[in-house]
Design brief:
12 strands; globular; 4-stranded parallel beta sheet; 489 residues
Length: 489
């Protein structure tokens, strides 16, 4: 508590040399997609004569890449930060602090330092309720980091964190950042009841989003509690359209599901589903890969996050690929890295695939083009708006309403007056107003997201087309592709 701290989020603001020069120590945390910039930043701090404390998910999973940091504080901070601080007081010039076998008790975790944030930089603020997931998906690293026994904060802790945000003046979207919010349903229901009571007393200053497994649809009481506190978005990893993939990857929670029915149940409780999908699994066929586009359409999933399979460090998948001599070892130094080496949307497939790589890339491009065509996307926006049964609790402030009106007018200029989207924009708006007025805000929000998804999709398609050209020869060139397209047809 005696330390003076400044937080610089370099996603939203510039890190100045003067910030580094004023610091006694520079702490850097990051995930794998931020690896390149993390390493550049490490070198920059050292060049100015300051020491670096490195931690977070990527240094924990690949400490050898960050060996040039002065201190490596790995794993969960509740466990490794105290011994680091003790050694620092004793004058330690370097050190590596590894997590022990016992995972920390997060019911003792302090309220995060939300006061260090600039709220105006964010569309949402994160609160963590649990760590760990009870499932055993081969490609997931969460169970490696946090374990398969979900650890859950107390209802009092969550209320205290919300109270801290409230006192600091924050209002709006709170993202429950858990990798599977419903890993322990009984404890989560207790948290939701406490949040419902707190929200009612404070006139619902927040609405919520989170990530959950598809069995959320099996629990009516849980969905009703989430609706009571104004959960509006939930990310669900659907991953594939192939039952064999669920079996082989141990994603057994998705086996024998009727996804359309499950999603409809969630929509009936006011929550829009963001779906995660992955192309490139062993056992997948071109037909099953391309069926992802049908699941997205039939499931009314506007925000479909579609990527290529990437074997993350410290996962069962990577260990299996190493045993099979199929894993392409990660490069370990900055001068051999590029931005796309660590992004599953624009790269992925960092292993020897069982079916032709050109087929996988071709299927990936096919799905992206179908899912994010103008008609397909705006049709889903309309279908989702009509399916949602939203009971909005959170009320916008007058300032937020004014800002939202300005944003809507800008959206009219970009979508409502564009020849490409004019028809779909006004069709969706008027039909939703007439049939499901409670969903108008959501329908407009989803249509606005098209501006991002179209740009992102074009970018990924360009990069993937370049990769496809590069692997033509190794996959049998045009003859192989012709056979593939004929088989798909």
């Amino acid at each position: 508590q005696s330390w003076g701290m400044k937080l610089v989020d370099i996603n939203t603001s510039e890190l100045k040399d003067s910030d580094i020069d004023r610091a006694d120590l520079v702490f850097i945390g990051g995930m794998q997609p931020q690896q390149v910039n993390f390493l550049k930043l490490l070198d920059r701090v050292h060049a100015r004569g300051k020491k670096v404390v490195a931690g977070g998910p990527d240094p924990t999973s690949q400490p050898e890449i960050y060996r040039e940091a002065d201190y490596l504080v790995l794993g969960e901070a509740e466990q490794t930060l105290p011994p680091f601080l003790e050694d620092l007081e004793k004058g330690a010039e370097s050190g590596t602090y590894l997590p022990g076998e016992e995972r920390p008790d997060i019911t003792q975790s302090p309220v995060p330092r939300y006061d260090l944030l600039r709220f105006q930089d964010y569309l949402m603020v994160g609160v963590q309720a649990t760590r760990g997931c009870p499932y055993n998906c081969e490609f997931c690293d969460i169970i490696e980091f946090y374990g398969r026994v979900p650890r859950v904060k107390t209802p009092e802790q969550i209320v205290n964190e919300l109270d801290a945000l409230y006192r600091l003046g924050y209002r709006g979207l709170v993202d429950i950042v858990d990798d599977n919010f419903i890993g322990n349903k009984a404890k989560i229901k207790s948290i939701l009841r406490a949040v419902r009571e707190w929200s009612s007393l404070h006139d619902y200053p927040f609405f919520f989003s989170t990530e959950a497994s598809i069995n959320l649809a099996d629990d009516e009481e849980l969905m009703r509690l989430m609706q009571d506190v104004d959960f509006r978005y939930v990310f669900i990893g659907i991953e594939s359209a192939d039952e064999r993939v669920f079996e082989s990857t141990q994603k057994k929670i998705n086996l024998h599901r009727k996804f359309n029915e499950d999603l409809q149940k969630i929509y009936c409780h006011g929550m829009a589903v963001n779906g995660g999908f992955i192309i490139g699994f062993d056992g997948e066929t071109s037909h099953s890969a391309r069926r992802i586009a049908d699941i997205v359409r039939q499931g009314k999933i506007c925000m479909a996050m579609i990527g290529l399979l990437y074997a993350l460090p410290r996962t069962q998948l990577t260990r299996r690929l190493i045993r099979e001599n199929r894993f392409e070892q990660t490069v370990d130094r900055l001068d051999r890295l590029s931005e796309s080496d660590i992004d599953q949307a624009s790269s992925g497939l960092n292993f020897v695939t069982k079916r032709a790589r050109s087929e996988i890339l071709s299927d990936y491009m096919y799905v992206l083009r179908r899912v994010y065509s103008v008609k397909a996307y705006f049709d889903r926006c309309l279908m989702l708006g009509l399916a949602l049964r939203r009971k909005t609790r959170h009320k916008m402030s007058w300032q937020k309403k004014r800002n939202t009106l300005r944003a809507f007018l800008r959206l009219v200029l970009k979508l409502g007056l564009s020849p490409r989207t004019f028809y779909y924009f006004w069709r969706n708006l008027f039909i939703t107003l007439a049939v499901r007025p409670s969903s108008v805000e959501e329908t407009v929000n989803m249509m606005a997201m098209y501006l991002h998804f179209r740009k992102q999709t074009d970018h990924i398609l360009d990069l993937t087309a370049g990769r496809l050209d590069a692997v033509k020869d190794s996959d049998g060139s045009d003859e192989c592709r012709a056979r593939h397209e004929a088989a798909v047809s």
